[in-house]
């Protein structure tokens, strides 16, 4: 059991970690650290957290386990102060959607202070954000990717693994760089493409949007997600996103070429192959 | 009330027209015409249709209202025989996802035989197909686009309009060419893009698919639709699809350029603008 769990950033993910940890009695005390004390006050009043503070050192100075759950750029900005304030030996993890830069920074800063960092990426987002939509069951059945490295402390890895398992998640381990390529392909690319799809219709004729049916709505749902959060993800994962975009352009060129050549049988074969891949998704 | 309603092609859409018309008693008799009598027999036994036949002339020779509900290419192949067999004055409509070619052909063939054609496109598909998934409520709240031209018979237009309204649909009227551009933008483009997204991940590393979360599944759901049906739609709507693809590439290039330039504020502004468009969708 965690003695003092500190959560920095009480949005959808941080709030859901707090709610889930409280519901399962995984920590004796839960402290929330954020920029806006008034906004966090809801969580204190509803019993999800025991204490809220806008002062990082005050909030995490005595924590044995800390989760940073801010957007990616904020996380990189906060890391020095967090590693400075945490007691030696504390376990630190995050919920960032990109990993290579975060893990490198956190390991560098953490090592100097004996803070034991393990990168986490719970794949349980939503196009909504904020504590109001946080749920104790958000991680049940969700995939959480851990990105330990050869420098990671084995005991800290076991503790982070145990926390996510206790919240109901399915755990996968990947190298930070492999993680960034994988999420570029299955999350960041589809997101940028959904944005471009909406914009393509605006460019052709915005009136067409009145005819949008379920297919268009499903395909573009993620285009309604937080612009600030996705700005940071796209920028931070630029190299892997560029690789995914290149693969996507090849795939699209290939399909478009078959359509332009009016090769019906080849088109049907390709659509059948892709349908089978899609149907095998978990 | 329709006296004898003939439905050519008893799949998801044709079957749903039959079920909905029967449930609302919109026709005295419903006849299904298809290639496979055994497959249609289910609909006769469950009371949805009164008679099934594989012979077009036999099935529609005495119909006053006929709906062709086959895939697009089959529809174009069947049109001559259908217009030949229908009695003079009969109303003919379809459910095709493309309209310019179908309307031109049907008006040309229909005129010679006094068959009154009105193009329909019910936007109520699914990634599933076949009579087994047909539903009496499929068109409730769905948008049906009618594509009358200056050559259309006003009384036939009123009858087709009345049928879809009786099935619960919201009606929109567009010129055939405008229809094809609109559906290229909001249906055919997203579909081809969803296919390319799935294939892009296969090209990068198929193992990444194991990590697919809700966002990827939503965005690529339509990639599981019928390859035969979509082969015909993509090929038939080639020119409008090419225009939509060009608009999409411009939109994607624009976003990718901002990411490559690491212009955070511009990226956030664009994502915010697109999010607002997406959120206004009906």
Outline:
Two copies of one chain form a homodimer. Chain A is an alpha/beta fold and 282 residues long. Helix content of chain A is 54%, strand content 14%.
Can you walk through the features of this model?
The structure is a homodimer of 282-residue chains. Chain A folds into 2 domains: 2-174, NAD(P)-binding Rossmann-like Domain (Rossmann fold); 178-279, 6-phosphogluconate dehydrogenase C-terminal fold (Orthogonal Bundle), CATH 1.10.3660. In chain A, helix 4 runs parallel beside helix 5 (100-113) and helix 7 (176-204) packs across helix 10 (238-260). The first copy, chain A, has helices at 12-23, 37-45, 56-60, 72-85, 100-113, 154-166, 176-204, 214-220, 227-236, 238-260, 264-279; strands at 2-8, 27-33, 51-53, 65-68, 91-94, 116-118, 120-123, 143-146, 170-173. In chain A, 54% of the residues are buried. With 282 residues, chain A is α/β, with parallel strands linked by helices. In chain A, helix 4 (72-85) links the parallel strand 4 and strand 5 (91-94). The first copy, chain A, is elongated. The first copy, chain A, has 11 helices and 9 strands. In chain A, the strands form 2 sheets. Chain A has a 6-stranded parallel β-sheet, sandwiched between helices. The mean pLDDT of chain A is 95. Chain A is 54% helix and 14% strand. At the A-B interface, helix 7, helix 8, helix 9, helix 10 and helix 11 of A face helix 7, helix 8, helix 9, helix 10 and helix 11 of B.
Characterize the main sheet of chain A.
Answer: 6 strands, parallel
Main interface pair? A-B, 88 and 88 residues
User: What is the number of helices of chain A?
Assistant: 11
CATH H level, superfamily name of the largest domain in chain A? NAD(P)-binding Rossmann-like Domain
Strand order of the largest sheet of chain A: 3-2-1-4-5-6
Number of strand elements of chain A: 9
Spans of chain A with pLDDT under 50 lasting ≥5 residues? none
Provide the succession of SSEs of chain A.
EHEHEHEHEHEEEHEHHHHH
Which oligomerization state do the chains in this entry correspond to?
Answer: homodimer
- What gyration radius of chain A follows from the Cα positions, in whole Å? 21 Å
């Amino acid at each position: 059991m965690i003695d003092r769990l500190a959560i920095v950033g009480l949005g959808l993910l941080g709030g859901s970690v707090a709610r889930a940890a409280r519901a399962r009695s995984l920590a004796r005390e839960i402290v929330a650290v954020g920029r806006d004390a008034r906004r966090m006050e809801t969580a204190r009043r509803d019993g999800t957290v025991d204490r809220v503070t806008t002062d990082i050192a005050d909030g995490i100075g005595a924590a044995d386990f800390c989760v940073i759950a801010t957007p990616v750029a904020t996380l990189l900005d906060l890391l020095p102060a967090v590693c400075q304030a945490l007691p030696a030996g504390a376990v630190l993890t995050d919920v960032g959607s990109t990993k290579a830069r975060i893990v490198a920074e956190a390991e560098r800063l953490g090592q100097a202070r004996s803070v034991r960092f393990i990168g986490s990426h719970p794949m349980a987002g939503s196009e909504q954000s904020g504590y109001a939509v946080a749920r104790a069951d958000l991680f049940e059945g969700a995939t959480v990717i851990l990105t330990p490295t050869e420098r990671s402390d084995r005991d800290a890895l076991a503790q982070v693994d145990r926390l996510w398992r206790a919240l109901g998640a399915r755990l996968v381990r990947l190298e930070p760089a492999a993680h960034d390529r994988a999420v570029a392909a299955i999350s960041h690319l589809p997101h940028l493409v959904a944005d471009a799809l909406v914009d393509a219709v605006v460019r052709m004729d915005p009136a067409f949007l009145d005819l949008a049916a379920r297919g268009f709505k499903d395909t573009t749902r993620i285009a309604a997600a937080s612009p600030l959060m996705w700005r940071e993800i796209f920028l931070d994962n630029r190299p892997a996103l560029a690789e995914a975009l290149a693969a996507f352009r090849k795939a699209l060129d290939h399909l478009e070429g078959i359509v332009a050549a009016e090769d019906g049988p080849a088109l049907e074969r390709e659509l059948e192959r892709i349908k089978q891949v899609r149907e095998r998704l978990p």
